[in-house]
Design a protein that fits this description.
Radius of gyration: 19 Å
Order of helices and strands: EHEHEHEHEHEEEHEEHEHEHEHH
Strand order of the largest sheet: 3-2-1-4-5-6-7
Oligomer: single chain
Distance between the termini: 12 Å
Largest sheet: 7 strands, parallel
Shape: globular
Length: about 325
């Protein structure tokens, strides 16, 4: 059975890995997922699909490149071992993808990379490093093809997002998700909505900050965030995978909020929100959030199939 190593950094990158991983497994491919050491939530999640190996994350979130140098040696050694028994590597972005991507070429394996959905102006740093080595570059939108003018092969597959796990239902609450890192400004504004019922997924922001406020429930992470999305009235999130899954997969009215943790041009963030049928929120204040919520609920949801299946078929095609 052919084996593909798939990298899964926290956040949207892991979402891409899971979405394509599901389809690779359905195609009869053996998948080994590489996740950063210590991320138990992702270990449990990916274990449902295939083998999981915890590896060194070369560069932590927000860290200067020079501080990552001491971990690079260990990361490359681990990557060489992981890639040794594989036929191909799929890098889904972030620093975790770089050692396995380079290792794939050193060992004569095939390499595919997947760009992030919200990038229209410039590729992500890891993908800029790996693109000259890649046999295949996967992008979500036709507008992203021009990001890789010198790549060997670029394919637009449609928006890649995780498959819905539940039937959507209209609940009474507003769900605010802020990923692994959290987004304190957005959480603070959402907690001030007053009469609304609000559920906050806070990430690295301490949820105790919001406990006890009327109508507010807060938690750091959930192994089953899909259940919360499926039952939400509206979903508010930052620029990332959850926005696409909520809007396109579950057909939920969705607000995409500006975030200091997602370093992309505002033009890209706005275009991403437009592509998935969400409302872009650039001012983090209660009045602006209320207006964005009203606008999102007034727009009919759009349902667009995930591009994960096509992406998986193209990756599997490298193994022929």
């Amino acid at each position: 059975m052919p084996r593909v190593v798939v990298t899964a950094s926290p956040g949207g990158h892991a979402g891409y890995a899971y979405a394509v991983g599901v389809e690779l497994v359905r195609l009869g491919v053996d998948v080994l997922f590489l996740v950063p050491r210590g991320h138990e939530v992702w270990v449990r999640r990916f274990s449902r699909l295939g083998a999981v190996r915890e590896v060194t994350l070369p560069r932590r979130y927000g860290e200067h490149l020079l501080r990552a140098v001491p971990r690079l040696g260990r990361a490359f050694i681990e990557a060489l071992r992981a890639v040794g028994g594989a036929d191909a590597v799929l890098g889904t972005g972030a620093s975790l993808s770089v050692p396995p991507g380079v290792a794939a070429r050193l060992r004569g394996r095939r390499l595919a990379i997947l760009e992030s959905m919200p990038r229209f102006t410039r590729p992500g740093l890891a993908n800029r490093v790996l693109a000259p080595l890649a046999d295949l570059v996967l992008v979500h939108w036709e507008e992203q093809v021009s990001l890789y003018p010198r790549a060997r092969r670029v394919e637009a597959v449609g928006p890649v997002y995780e498959p819905p796990r539940y039937q959507p239902r209209r609940g009474s609450y507003i769900l605010v998700t802020t990923g692994s890192v959290g987004h304190r400004m957005l959480l603070d504004v959402a907690a001030e909505l007053g009469s609304e019922e609000v559920v906050l997924q806070t990430g690295m922001v301490d949820p105790e900050r919001y406990q006890g406020r009327p109508g507010v429930r807060a938690f750091r992470w959930s192994d089953d965030i899909d259940s919360w999305i499926a039952g939400a009235r509206v979903v508010v999130t930052h620029v990332g995978m959850t926005a696409a899954k909520a809007a396109l997969g579950y057909g939920k009215p969705t607000v995409v909020a500006a975030s200091p943790h997602i370093v992309i041009p505002e033009r890209d963030a706005r275009l991403y929100a437009e592509k998935i049928g969400a409302v872009y929120l650039d001012r983090l204040e209660p009045g602006a959030l209320r207006r964005a919520l009203e606008e999102a609920e007034s727009n009919p949801p759009r349902r667009v199939p995930s591009g994960a299946r096509r992406a998986a078929k193209l990756v599997a095609g490298l193994l022929a």
